[in-house]
Each structure stands twice: as C-alpha cells, then as structure tokens.
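Hi support team,

I submitted a single chain yesterday and got back a structure, but I'm not sure I'm reading the token output correctly. Could someone confirm the output below corresponds to the sequence I sent? I've pasted both exactly as they appear in my results page.

Thanks,
R.
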Amino acid sequence: MNETSRGWLERDAAVVWHGFTQMASFLGGEASRAPLMIERAEGRELIDVDGNRYLDAISSLWVTTLGHRVPELDRALIDQVGRIAHSTLLGNGNTVVVHLAEALSRVVPVESPHFLFASDGASAVEQALKVAFQYWRNKGAGAGEHRLFLALGGAYHGDTTGAISLGDSGFESAVFDPLKFEVLRSPGYGDPDWLAAAAKVIESRSGELAAVVVEPLVQAAGGMVVGDPHQVGELGQLCHDAGVLLIADEVATGFGRTGAMFASEICGLRPDLLCIGKGLTGGYLPMSATAASAKVYEAFFGDDLGPETLYHGHSYGGNALAAAVALKHLELMESRHVLDNVRSGADHLAGSLAGSLADHLAVKAIRQQGLMVGVELSPPVEGLRWGRRACAGATRRGVLLRPLGDVVVIMPPLTITTGEIDRIVAVLVESLDELL
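Hi R., thanks for writing in. Yes, this is the structure output for that exact sequence:
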C-alpha cells in the first residue's frame, strides 16, 4: 500500500526546507491549507500520492508551457542522456548548446545575440547586472560614472543579492537592506505617470546609469500589473537616445505567456541585455540565459586573461540535458502553433472572467495580458488572507492556484483548453463565494 499524503508530509518536514514557506506551520494550521505531496503528472494535471488530481493552473510556478510528460520532450531528454549529461562551458563547447543558442538567436529580440547560460531567472538577472556594470568599465567609465541602475516601483527580479537590490522590497526582503546596493527607483506601471517619472531620471542622471531594468509589459510578481506597450516601447527609445543600456527581464513573460514569444516584441523593445528562464525548457529542467547584444558582447574583447574578460560562469551553465529539452521545446512551440492557442485561449479567458468575476463582490480588479492574469481581491479588512484562502478553496476543488498576497494568479499552461479555462474560472468563483 502506498504511503499516505500525511506520512509523506511528515517525512518532508523532517528534512526539507521549502522556499517562501514558514516551516513552523508547514504541517499545522487549517487543514484547507495543507500542502500537496505530488507523485506524478499527466498532461496539465498533477497527481498526489493519494491519487487526487489537480489542474495545474499556475504552470508549476509559471514554468510549464506545454504540460507535463510531453512525449517529445521526454524523448529529447532520454536521447541526450545517451550522449552526455553535462560538460563545462567554461572555455569549452557542447554541440547541443550550440544548436540551442542558434535557435534562440532566431527568436530573441536582441541584435546579434550571444548567450550566457545559467540555471534560474535570478542568476540570469545577476549576470546582466555584472555585464552592464563591467561594460562601462571596459568602455573607460570612471569610478563615479555609469554605476547605478534604475528599476521600477513594484519590481521583482529574483532573490539573489543583486536581484533583490533591484526589487521593490517585496516578500519581506527589507531584512536584507544592509546587503543591497544603491538603486534609483521610479514608479511602476500602476502609476499613470510612470513613464514621465522614468524619463526624468534617465535624462537627469544618464551619466550615472549603467542600465535601466524593466519587466516588459507585465510586472508579474508585483501583482500582475500590466503596462501600456507603447509607453514601454517609449522607455526603450529613451534609453537608446540617452546612451543607457536597457535590461529586459523576461524570465516570467518570455516564451509565449503574453501572446508573443517575448513581451518585448509587443512593446517594440530591442534590449541590450535580455534575461530568460522559467519556460525555456518547458518546465522540465532548471535553465536560464542572459542574451547580450553585439554592442555589449564585443566590449568584452581584449587580451587573453586580461581585465576586459567577463570572469563569471556557473558549473552547470549550459547543461546539455537542459539544452536538449529547450531545443526541442522551441521546435514544438513553432510546429504546434502554440502562440495561436495562447491568443485564442486569452480571448476566451478574458470573456470568462468578465462574465463571471468582473462584478463579483470579492473582486477589486482583474488584470490580464495573454495567459497571465491577476485577480485582485477586496477583503473588507486587512489580515483576512483572502488570497490564500481562495486558493486553498480552489485546490480543494481540484484546481491548483497560488496567491500573491490578495491577488490570485491564473497562469495555466500555454496548451490549456477552453473547457479547462472555464473550469478554472468556475472553481475560483465557487471559492470566492465561500469566502463571502
């Protein structure tokens, strides 16, 4: 007989430390908040050790694109195991990584890109920061020149030290303030004057800026706050005119989430540095990359082992197994016309949300771009944790959702069907009705 979920969770609590989780209450508290113990998956459903099924409406934290156990991705992984699992990219190459980089170069909105591979989105951002800073040193900038970064209010770029410096003190990161470096900040997309404020900083302090860092079109972890694509494009032009580097963090928005392969395309952005991750391997293996434009990449040319060299790299950067899956994933995105399904699914989701949730007493606002949705709730008083309770109610009904505070995030796999979309919305409505 298989061990029950409770038994597995007790074993888990004895040895595992979960991120973004208070382990003191991991097993305690309300039964409705009990964590899941997943054993396997099929298609767009997760299956726990007790055999219960859950529609994965958050794409396993925004990484799964085509669903789970995709036969072609499975075979790509197995085929690569028969060749090699990993070899270092520090000074050496690997054929499958070359194939992947060539394929990525044809789709990223970066001029003549070169790719520096890592394992997660925060690492891709960290690389971009170091590259941007050293770019100016290699170009001869003085100690007080081009050393600062401009980020937006509500920004979130990951949990490494540089990334949390860019972030806007979300997720209790203020405890690390003594470790953060100085960052200039202007309002986020939620402020109607955000572009004018950013423009003022760029104009007045261009000589101090190493780069402007932006999440194109959607500030995802900030509550799914959607910007105007034309204004985001104008920000890119302002950076270009001022001679300031632009870093686009597309870890969350990349690989089809917004209805285009990259949100930068919708905005007309051509960033100098592009950070990608999450959906790169379709949710199979940890892999990220920083794409650098020719202008940036060539600034690092110099003498062998000289000071212009980028002394940065990860042991598992460019992992061959991940590269093989990522390469096949890109092929499937095209051959299966996945973006067409995202666009039609997004239209259906918008209609379903408008018909069922727009006037719901528990809902304050709905924000959507493609298959990225934030349903902001309106609890009558603070401290009710409506977001968490609503998602717990949805999970009990077989749909896995996860909140950002009192914003319920809906971010299903890109292959989601209209029937599954209606199920997600119906379950959320039932869970909100229960709150009221």
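A quick pointer for reading it: The chain has two domains: 5-66+337-435, 73-335. Let us know if anything else looks off.

Best,
Support desk
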